[in-house]
């Protein structure tokens, strides 16, 4: 299945087995957050143990394939549960969503950051455009209640943070627990069934 193939893409043959943390379910989609004006959307989360964050999955789509820009996904610290965008991100990757349909985007970090269990971090979403028609859309749940109580959805307009404590972006994290070293998979296109 597609899920199996994507999970296999994260396998580190020389390292421990990867644990998939499914924090929220794609069955609870209520709303989208569009951004295109230099603003940031964030989702805070707390890892259950120390380890390398090798990637995240985000439920997203593009508004318009003709004018779209890549989605930038980064990881930053979130002291006290609030994203800290004033310091350098711990990891950054760009992702071409390439679909106007709802899509699980598997973002792999080329230099996975080492995260501490029980510490708050933020997944940060950004699109470098001021064109409304080039915006990206990230999906979140509102009517279903607080699906992930260890984090919140945040918005940052460049000067002010706004927290939406009872809503969460639909996301997954991918971590290798208990190690500080990472060897990239030799063949991420291999299908394991």
How would you describe the overall organization of this protein?
With 193 residues, the protein is mainly β. The chain is built from one helix and 14 strands, in the order H-E-E-E-E-E-E-E-E-E-E-E-E-E-E. The strands form two sheets. Strands 1, 2, 4, 7, 8, 10, 13 and 14 form an eight-stranded antiparallel beta sheet that branches. A six-stranded antiparallel beta sheet has the order 6-5-9-3-11-12, with no helix packed on it. A hairpin with a 4-residue loop joins strand 11 and strand 12. The protein is globular and about 45 Å long.
- Total number of beta strands: 14
- Specify the biggest β-sheet: 8 strands, antiparallel
* Helix share, percent: under 10%
The number of helical runs is 1
Q: What is the terminal-to-terminal distance?
A: 7 Å
Mean pLDDT across residues:
74
What sequence of helices (H) and strands (E) makes up the elements?
HEEEEEEEEEEEEEE
- Rg, rounded, reads 16 Å
Low-confidence stretches: 1-27, 186-193
Basic shape: globular
